[in-house]
Structure formats: C-alpha cells, structure tokens
Give the backbone structure.
Amino acid sequence: MAFRVVMIESEVSLQLKYNNLLINKGDGDIWIPLEDISVIVIDNLKIQFTVRLMSTLAEHNIGVIICNMEHLPIGFYCSYDNHSRVSKMLTNQIGKDQQFYDSFWKQIIFHKISNQMQVLKKYNFSQDAIDKLNNWSNDLADGDPSNREAHSAKVYFNTLMGTSPSRGNDDILLNSGLDYGYAVIRAYIARLCVAYGLNSQLGIHHKNEFNRFNLVDDLMEPVRPFVDLLSYELLKDEKFFTCEHRRKLVNLLNHKVFYKNQKMYLANMLEEYVSSYAAFLSGNKEDVVFPEIDNYIGEKDGD
C-alpha cells in the first residue's frame, strides 16, 4: 500500500528511473520507489518534469497537486478510471435511486456536524454554538432539504474564526490553512476513488456539471473537521502562513486515528472509508463507518 506524501519545495528536476522517482537537486539525488508514493505536492513553479513521468505516475495511481505562487494548491492530476471493474462500479453508482443517495447524504451531514461540534468542544468554544449544532444534527431529513448543513457551517465558522467567514479571504489567516488542508485531503480521496473504480463525477449530493470531483467533495465532508482542528491548532497564535505550516498540514495524513476498532494512520482510515463506500454501493456492506473527531489521536500517541 502506498503511504508516502512527497512534498517538493526546492527548484529541482523530477525524473523517472528504474521505477523510482528521481529528485535531482544538483548536489545529490533522492530516490523514492513509485510503489511507496500516494501523492506528490509540487510547490515551486520552477520544478521541471516530463510527460513520461506524469504518464507513469498515472499508471501507478499517484496523485499530483500543483501549487501556485501563493503556495496554495491550484490543480490536481490523477489517473483516469484505471480500475479493472470500472464499468461494474459505474453501473452500481448509476443504478441507485435518489432516495438511496438522500438517505446517505443525511448520514454524511450528521457526521460532519457531529465532528464540527467535537472541534468546538475541544477548544471550549461557546456552549450556545455547540447546542445549536447539536439541535440541527438531530433535525436532519433525508437529502437535508432545509439545508441544516449551511446553518451549522455559518455558526461553526463564525465561532471558530471569531468573525463572519469568507472563503478565500486572505485577511483571515485560518482560511489559508483550511484551503491548503482541504486540497490535500481532496486530492487523496480523489486518488482513492479512482483506485476503487468510483466515478468521481457522479456525486451523492454535489451535482455540478463542471466539477470532476463531485463524489470526492461529498465523501470528504465528514473529514473536513480534521483539517479544521489541525489548522486552528497551528494558526491560532500565528501572523503568517509559512512553509512549516504547509508541511504539517500535508503530514496530517500520517497522523493516527482510531477507526473500525483499530489504530491506524489517517491515510489508511481514508482508504478504509472509501473502500467501504464502494462495497456499500455494491451491496457487499450494510453500512459505512464514518470518521469521528473523538477518535483522532494525532501525530504522536506515546507509543
């Protein structure tokens, strides 16, 4: 199982050699077996690589995140439907009716709001805000027609940021951490969807015709609070979003969490989560176990 998230910030050239990623730094080479890599984050506009390398990365289902001049992820590259039974999985996705997806969306939002509540509890935020989220989570209907998700998000981010949030507002430092962390998790889940034959354009609730990752955006909803928790911890007393913060957010995938009665890395938890959804669609599982903030352990657990 691929486990490495490789972050490259220096001006280097990337090559393929003997089924390894070769990072040529000028003063020495770094070799990393392709079979070990899950995602590569390219955070320098002068990094050079070849189409041959990108083609091979796709063959190995290795995702590539490209960052812009502000060091924020702006693009994602991955393989395209390389699962051996992708047609069967596509039939499973298309064959489910709206009632099935509305019911599952209710579960997604319930666990997302529950995890948001746990973030607020961990930092002793307003009990009033926590109570509002709790009430909305218990008042959900299939498909969330009353948009309890949006009501909860407004109260949650107002509380977490201490101000009315605005996505992409650079004046709110926490936004930078959230945008960066969400992009990393989104790319990782996109890679997993491809690995398990899921068509990422066919969403559960997201239906944007211009979004290639509708399903990814659905599945990551309960996972977003993990990014919120780490971003808040990293940036609550900071004035700038630095490269060290970016490295720590990428490393979230290597943090530990308790899931399905065992301790594992968050990256492994995400794979279990996505594979469970694929099996649920196929009728091989009766339910999906959702990630829970209460079971988050962190980078170090004393082992």
User: Anything to note?
Assistant: The two ends are 22 Å apart (CA to CA). Residues 4-77 form a domain with the Ribosomal Protein L15; Chain: K; domain 2 fold (CATH 3.100.10.20). The chain has a mean pLDDT of 89.
